[in-house]
Amino acid sequence: MRYFFKYIILLITLVFSAYSWAGVKVGVVLPLHDKDGDGLRMVEYYRGVLMAVDQLKNEGYDIVVSTWNVPQDGSVSVVTSDKNAAKCDIIFGPLYSSQVKELGDFCKSKKIKLVIPFSINSWEVTRNEYIFQVYQTPYNQTLLNVKAFNDRFTNAHTVLVDCMDQNVESRKGEFTKKLRENLDAKKTQYNMTSLASNDENFQKAFSRSEHNVVVLNSSRMPELSKVIARLDKLKAKNPNISISLYGYNEWFMYVPYLTKELHRYDAYIPTNYYFNDAADNTIAFEKAYKGWFHTELQKSLPRFAITGYDHAEYFIRGIKAYGKKFVGMKNQSNYAPIQTPLSFERVGEGGYSNKSFQLIHYKTNGALEAIRY
User: Fold this and answer.
1) Mean pLDDT, to the nearest integer, of 50-63?
2) Which residues contact 208 (CB under 8 A, 6 or more apart)?
3) Which helix H or strand E contains 152, and what residues bound it?
4) Which class for 38: exposed (0-12), middle (13-18), buried (19 or more C-beta within 10 A)?
5) Nearest by Cα to 316 from 29, 60, 127, 67
6) What's the pLDDT score for residue 44?
7) Phi/psi of residue 287, nearest 5 degrees
8) For every residue of 239-264, which 3-state class applies, written as one string?
9) If both were cysteines, with which of 121, 185, 203, 205 could 193 make a disulfide (CB 3.0 to 4.6 Å apart)?
10) What pLDDT is stored for residue 22 in this prediction?
11) What does 337-349 look like in DSSP terms, one character per residue?
12) Cα–Cα distance list, 209 to 39, 121, 155, 240, 280 (Å)
């Protein structure tokens, strides 16, 4: 009988150990304060993480969340010296480049996945196999953008429009340069025109027998509006001409003002996120957020709370399903994001970099389509 009770006690111990192991321990290392914009944005991101955790707990997940407020002048040592940090399966953060190496080295030593959600200036992802870099550099996004263009418009006629934009920040010369290099390498003919050209010369750049894809070298709304006006004139003279616009992430800000025009010209906007305020899941999230925190989401693009929600859902579900073998690849997840899709690839012998990319297609019938790569 004595040995029987010992066996029962051992069995109970093993069951509780297994249950504890099956749980996911999450850390958040961000500036969580209300002293500046960084803090306010990261608090909203963190709130999104908490909403995801609540949803997953309702599905039966066992999750423990630990947080550390590490502002720009703060020290990562408050994390690395905390015994709770060493128990984490995953940590989201940091926000600042100066904190990446120390936190990354700590996570590597403890075999903890480190998800860096936002823009940093660091090459640690190339050296540390435990780092997951969500942010995509402008250069990498340009390469993905050119590839998506080629995949989608293999047989189209490209028309490049010089918008005479004097604003350096809104010029898109890097993309149009790479696109032209690619078209030249494939010996694919394209035409160039300018907003300074008269209507006759502007319209000569377009094919009447092929599908035309119009690419601007500016992301600004005034230039886009001018191009649309020129296309309206072209279309009035040639009703059967086929045209698509290929744009930029900044165009999402103009959607409230140019929705009909984007649909009329079959516009494609390349992006690594998409916020659709009319979607059912977005409306439900915003309502839940207001119910939880008694405030509206900040009017940023992308929405920080939804970003945190999508990140937490993706990684916690992945760790629950695959444990240490989860490396963020597309075939390891069936989570449908509200706003921020993720898909990671190994960077040499280092960590993992997000390669998610999509085209948001404003179809001529008024529908929206997300084409993911």
Assistant:
1) 98
2) 238, 240, 241
3) helix 138-152
4) middle
5) 60
6) 98
7) -65, -45
8) CCCCEEEECCHHHHHHHHHHHHHHHH
9) 205
10) 59
11) -SS----EEE-TT
12) 54, 47, 12, 9, 40
DSSP H or E stretch at residue 49: helix 37-58
- 106-114: long-range contacts at Cβ-Cβ below 8 A with a sequence spacing of 24 or more? 106/76, 106/79, 106/80, 107/131, 110/85, 110/86, 111/324, 112/27, 112/86, 112/88, 113/89, 113/315, 113/319, 113/326, 114/90
DSSP result, 73-98: T--THHHHT-TTGGG-SEEE--SSGG
- Angle of the 304-322 helix axis to the 37-58 helix axis, nearest 10: 40
Q: Is the Cβ–Cβ distance between 329 and 356 less than 8 Å?
A: no
Neighbours of 51 (CB within 10 A): 21
The two structure tokens encoding residue 175: 């993309």
Provide the terminal-to-terminal Cα distance of the chain, rounded to the nearest Å.
Answer: 63
Burial of 64 (0-12, 13-18, 19+ CB in 10 A): middle
Residue type, position 291, single letter:
G
Q: What is the pLDDT, as a whole number, of residue 53?
A: 98
pTM, two decimal places:
0.88
Amino acid residing at 195: L
Instruction: At 303, list the tokens.
Output: 């929405």
**Cα separation values, 275 from 135, 222, 261, 282, 353, Å:** 17, 23, 19, 8, 22
Angle of the 280-293 helix axis to the 37-58 helix axis, nearest 10: 110
Phi, psi of 262 (to 5 degrees): -65, -40
